[in-house]
Structure formats: structure tokens, C-alpha cells
Amino acid sequence: MIAVERSPLLSRHRFLWPETLFWLAAVAVYLLFPQYLAIATSVMIMALFAVSYDLAIGFGGILTLGHAVFFGIGAYSAAWIALLGWTEPLTGALASGMIAAAFAGALGPFLLRLTGLPLIMVTLGVSVIVHEAANKAGWLTGGDDGLTGFSMSPLLGWFRWSVFGDTKYFYALAWLLVIFYLVRRVVASPFGVALQGIRENALRMRLVGTSTLRHLVVAYSISAGVAGVAGAVSAQTNTFVGLGVLSLDTTIDGLVIVVLGGIGTLYGSLVGAPVYMLVKHFAQQWNPFYWMFVIGTLLIVVVRFGRGGLLGMADVALKRLLRR
Amino acid sequence: MTVASFILLYGISYGLVLCLIAVGLVVTMGLMRVVNLAHGAFAAIGGYLSTGLMAEAGVPLPLAIVAAVAAVALFSLAIERLIFAHLYGASELDQVLLTIGLNFLAIGGLTLAFGPNVYPTRLPSWLAGNVDFGFRAFEVYRLVVIAVGFLVMTALFVVFELTTIGAQLRASVDNRSMAQAAGINVPRLFSLTFVVGSGLAALGGAIGAPMLPLEPTYPFKYLVLVLIIVALSGFGRVKDALGVSILIGIVETAGRYFLPAVSGFLVYALLIVLIIWRRDGLFARSSAS
Fold first, then answer.
1. Residues B82-129: pLDDT tens digits?
2. Range of the domain at B12
3. Chain B 140-199, CB below 8 Å of chain A: which residues?
4. Per-residue pLDDT at A235 exceeds 50
5. Do A293 and B262 touch (CB under 8 A)?
6. What is residue A47's predicted lDDT score, i.e. its pLDDT?
7. Is residue A7's pLDDT more than 70?
8. Is residue B169 in some structural domain?
9. What is the ipTM of this complex?
10. In this structure, what are the phi and psi dihedrals at residue B214, rounded to the nearest 5 degrees?
């Protein structure tokens, strides 16, 4: 069971003006803080990963702890596509996402019969297995050293990957924008509504004739595909893939971003990613293991006091302000 | 013969340590349906405390273990009252997040106290030697682990099956609201089980330290293995937990011996197939789904 507050931002199909805020802020970051473009790019990638996680967990109610698997598959696929000679980034990322989606499509029918604790455990187990297998399969993943030595051809044949990182930043931002729009459409579609019905009460949805497993598998695959694209963009912009992409840490990063921002809202990921990544960046610079205290406390505080995450709290505050 | 006895000795002692760590979780998860991913942290703290007491203060091993178990049990009582009491009835996601958060706090605390590297464990001399049984010499340490493990599990089994508290526990696992209606104080029972379970985990972590190396990431490292035991045991079955743990111990030891290159994920893969196949527990009588 996953408790999700109804999101005012997604309750209608029509476009609302606050939705532009994030994208305007993203452009403002480029103009105001050009020296921070590298971390801003990683924020975009993690936001994309969190959007995919939110689709699975916040809309499908699929409580998985193995989402890093798809991020990692996307990253390694993108690296290999480039290493094999296909250096066009857009199609490379798209193909990587499809590989991750196919993997999820194959895994889903087995995993998604489970719910609750068994699902948590099996997804966690799959994640551990894949990480371990990648560690052992050095010929495929480079083992501990990771995959390097590939480079991407200019974006759209025109924009070079400069050292300033502005191409990388807008490349990641563009993927986020396009995929966010598509996922928003999916969530508002009849399929998305059925998905939320399954999250709320799977038995009742089955009784009214919805094939819940098929819905969940499709949602899981879409989510995995998006996670794969996020991994691919990470590989392409860093021109490096290491085992870290498959680790539990990646999953936890994504999960915390979703919950911190506000689960089941999609926009929560966009709010949570910059906050979380900045806190992480500065806490780790300060002292790597103080970060453990920071993230531990953050998790406990969000669960105990932050109903609906940052977006939920902002919503409550706004309503109070308007009532006055 | 020697290979078989080697695998049995190492597998059973390893399995018993896993069982001690996991059994508390088997019961508490059965009782309150709380997803507690922080259970391994109690084992880690127990291991660190007993090893630290031995190395820094020169306390003899049995005393150090008793002290560590008592300290962890007290500590877990505080955690249960302060944090877990708010989790009953919360969503599974909240439980997952909060207990992951606790894990991070434990890792941070252990790093702060004992440093980021593996904390070395040294066996006292009376445990480090071998004892010769004619056809083969066995490590004293492994034999002692097996003896302690079976002793504790037998005691637990007697309490669980033959005493009033055990009957109350089993009734509460089977049907919580009915048990409550019959006058059983389930929350207090839960506090008690939580404390005992955490203490047992500390015991497992302490006597298992030479097998499961103490490092700050311990709570996450053995999380999957412990959760697999819980899932395969089925909720609240102490007896099955023992069988499952020993099976896992033997399978993993055999895997490491015969297929050292792939054993790490082969064992996990096998166990996951088992979980998907036997959703209600490996030894559950009938699958009612």
C-alpha cells in the first residue's frame, strides 16, 4: 500500500502556468551560474530518473528497490552503442531506453505478481544480482574500471560537446522536457487513470475487469525505458560508465528525490532533484560520512513530518495563505 | 567425506549465525507486518560492540558478547518506543524509507566510532585452535558457534511453542485483532519481541563477526540475505526460519566451494526463484493463492 495525496497539478488535463516555472528556472541557471553546469546536468539526469521512478511507485504503486538496474542497463547500452561506432547521441539514448524497457518487459510478468514485502525483496535481490553479475562480467562492463574511451558526435550534427558543458546541459534538459511531457500525457490518459486505480485498490480493479498484471507490466516497461534513457544520457554526458550506476545508492537517490519532492505528482521529482543533489553535493564536500547522517535524518524527517514532500508542504502553505 | 564434512560444518555454522540475525525479524514482521530494513544494523552494532570491548578494554569474549547483547536490547527498546511505534499502520513505503534512513544513521555512527574500513576481529586463543576428531580436524570456533546457535534456537523454540507467551505470540501472528479481542496486549508483546529479536541479532552479529566481516556498510550488505530468510520462512515461523537458514548456509558454502566464480549471484538467483515459486514460505503447508 502506498499512500499518495491527490496532486492538484495533475488533476486536470489542461496546462497550468506554474508548470513553466521549473523550465524557466532551468534556463535561468544556465544564464546565472554557468560555472555549475556540470552539477546542473546531473540534476537533470537524476530528475529524469526520479520521474521514471515516480511513474512506477507513485502511479503504479510498484514498490521496487531495484530501479537502478534499468538506469544501469541504459548507461552500459549507451556506452556500448558508442563504442561499437554509432556515436549519434539521440538515437543512441533512445535505443538504450528501449533495451531497458525490453528487460523490464521480460522481468515484469514474474515480479509484478508479488506485492508488498516479497516485491521489495525480490526487486532488491535482482538489483544485487545484476550488480554482482556486472562486476564479474569484466569483458562487458569493464568491471571496477568501468567503460571509457568513447565520444559522441556533435548533437544534431551541429552542436559540439564543448568543455563548458552547455551542450551537455541543454541535451539533458531537452530529454527531460520531452519525456516529462510524454509521461504527463501517459499519466492523464485512461491507461494512467486505470494505473492509479490499481495503486489504490488492485482487487477492485480486477473485479471491474481490468487486467491488472498487463497494466503493471506496461507501466513498469515505460518506467524502465525512461530510467534507461536517463542512464544513457548520464553515460553520454560523462563519457564514462562505472559500476556505481547499478548500485543500491542510485536507487536510493532516486527514491529519496521522489519522496522529498512529493510522490505521485511528477513535479515532485523536478523539485526534489535540485534540492537533494545540492544538499548531497555540499554535504559530501564537507565530509563524506556526515552525508550519511544528513540523508538518514532527511529520510526520517520527511516520513514523519513531510506529508506529500516539498510540493505537498508548499501546497498546504499556499492554501493557508489564500484562505486568509 | 572431508569435503562433505567441511561444507556441513561451515554451512551449518554460517546458517545458524544468519538464523540468529534473521529470526527476530521473522517474528516481528509476522506480528506487526512492519517492513524493517534496519534490522541488520542491530547485528552490526552488536558485532562492533563485542569486538570493540574485547580489543579495547580486554573484556573476555563471553562477557563482551553478553554486554553487547544487553546494550543493543536496551537501545532497541528506545528505538521501538521512539520510532517504530509510529510506523504501525503506516504505508509500506513509509516503513521502507524510515528504516533505510535508520540504516544510514547507523552506518554514519559506526564510521564515526570505528573508522570506514573493516574492523578486524581476533579470536581468543581458546577458540582459534582445532580439535581432532580422528578423520578430520575441526575449528573450535565453528563448533562453538553451532552449539550456541542450536542452544539459543532450542530455547527460543521452547518459549515459542510451549509457554503462554509463546501461545499469545502465535495467536497474535495468526490473527492480530482476534488476539487483541481476547485480551492479549499485542503492542506490549511486540515491544518484547522487538527487543528480544534485536538482542538475538546482536548475538548473531557478535559471534558471527569472524564470518561476516564488520564494516560500516554491514546493515545493507547482509540485508538481502536476511530478507530472503524472512520471505522463505513465511511470517512468524521460528521453526522454518531455522531450516531455511541452514539450507541457505549450506547452499552458499557449497556454491563458494564448487563454483567460486559465480556463487555470489547464483545463490541469490536460486533463492529468488524460490521466493517467486513459494510465495507463502518454503515449508508452508498449502499455497492458498
1. 888 777 777 888 888 888 899 989 988 888 888 888 888 777 777 777
2. 2-277
3. none
4. yes
5. no
6. 93
7. no
8. yes
9. 0.81
10. -80, 115
Determine the residue among B25, B79, B100 to mutate to test chain A binding: the one whose Cβ has the most chain A Cβ atoms within 10 Å: B100
Supply the CATH number for residue B141's domain. 1.10.3470
- For residue A213, what are the contacts with CB-CB under 8 A and spacing of at least 6? A109, A112, A113
- For the cut 70, the answer to whether the pLDDT of residue A213 exceeds it is yes
What residue spans define the domains of chain A? Answer: 26-245
Give me B220's grid cell: 545493507
User: Using CA atoms, how far apart are residues A187 and A268, in angstroms rounded to an integer?
Assistant: 14
Q: Cβ separation of A295 and B101 shorter than 8 Å? A: yes
- A8 falls in which pLDDT band (50, 70, 90)? low
Q: Which residues are bridge partners to B279 per DSSP?
A: none
Q: How many domains does chain B divide into? A: 1
Higher pLDDT, A181 or B274: A181
pLDDT for A2 equals 60
Average pLDDT, chain A: 84
pLDDT recorded at residue A15: 64
Say how many Å lie between the first and final Cα of chain A, rounded: 35
Nearest-Cα distance to chain B for A291, in Å, is 8
Is B160:B166 a contact under the CB 8 Å cutoff?
A: yes
Distances (CA, A) of B41 to A83, A287, B95, B198: 42, 22, 15, 9
Residue type, B276: I
Task: Note whether A137 contacts B: Cβ–Cβ < 8 A.
Answer: no
Q: Do residue B86 and residue A304 have CB atoms under 8 angstroms apart? A: yes
B93 interaction partners in chain A (CB closer than 8 Å): 2-3, 57, 63, 259, 263
On whether any CB of chain A is under 8 Å from the CB of B270, the answer is: no
Min CA distance, A208 vs chain B (Å)?
A: 20
Residue B269 Cα, gap to closest chain A Cα (Å): 7
Residue B97 lies in a domain: yes
Which residues, given as ranges, of chain B have pLDDT below 50? 286-289
Residue B82 contacts A where some CB pair is shorter than 8 Å: no
Output the pLDDT for position A324.
Answer: 64
Please give the pLDDT value at position B135.
66
Enter the C-alpha cell of residue B130: 582445532
- Rg of the Cα trace of chain A? 19
Contacts of B268 in chain A (CB under 8 A): 125, 128-129, 132
pLDDT score, position B120: 81
Instruction: Give the position of cell 563504442.
Output: A83
Residue B285 lies in a domain: no
Q: What residues of chain A lie within 8 A of the CB of B94, using their CB?
A: 3, 303
Residue B187, classed as helix, strand or coil, is: helix
Q: Is residue B289 part of a domain?
A: no
Contacts of A3 in chain B (CB under 8 A): 91, 93-94
